[in-house]
Amino acid sequence: MEEPREQQSVPALPPSxxxxxxxxxPLGAYAPAPAPSALDVGARVARLLVHRxxxxxxxxxLLARPHLGWLILTTFLLGVIAVLSxxxxxxxxxxxxxxxxxxxxxxxxxxxxxxxxxxxTYDADLMWNSFSANFQExxxxxDFTRExxxxxxxxxxxxxxxxxxxxxxGGIRLPDNQAMYxxxxxxxxxxxxxxxxxxxxxxxxxxxKIVAIE
Length: 214
What we know:
The protein is of the alpha+beta class and 214 residues long. Among the domains are: 45-76; 110-213, Nuclear Transport Factor 2, Chain: A (Roll). The protein has helices spanning 38-64, 68-94, 110-121, 124-129, 133-141, 146-159, and strands spanning 162-174, 178-188, 195-204, 210-213. Strands 1-2-3-4 form a four-stranded antiparallel β-sheet, with helices on one face. A hairpin with a 6-residue loop joins β2 (178-188) and β3. The longest helix is centred in the N-terminal third of the chain and has 27 residues, at 38-64.
């Protein structure tokens, strides 16, 4: 006869609606963590910068330590030079600065430009017409006429004298609406291997005509 089998106990099923793993967690248990505030981010960045600064300072100290004596001596000498330079510069800075007497820039008078171009092209008429009537009369009183100027320019052309270029330096206003213009003219002479520069000072009246040449 078969022996009766032992009856195995069947585990009891959990009650309906429940869980064998305990109570369900609340809905907010798995919510994402709140984003850090701007203050927290700033504090972290500040700590990172401080740590980085200490690290660079440590590296710099390791590099400079073998040459510390030379660095101290060099820094001392540079400081002495800076102090002496400051002592020399302070009296000059304390002095009253002189007024600016540089020549200002004025629009050149057309008559002056005509005279200079007449020189370059040996055009005595262009040069003579750039003079004012009074200046022409004063020249004629000294036996210097248009024909004399033409002969002079022709003689320079035959001699090979060349007025290569002219450079305007500046001008100033004078009383009675007159003006004075400063030019440098580059002249080449066949007898000389090099060119030379000569200066011209033109005084112009209120009508823009030349009244004097120096």
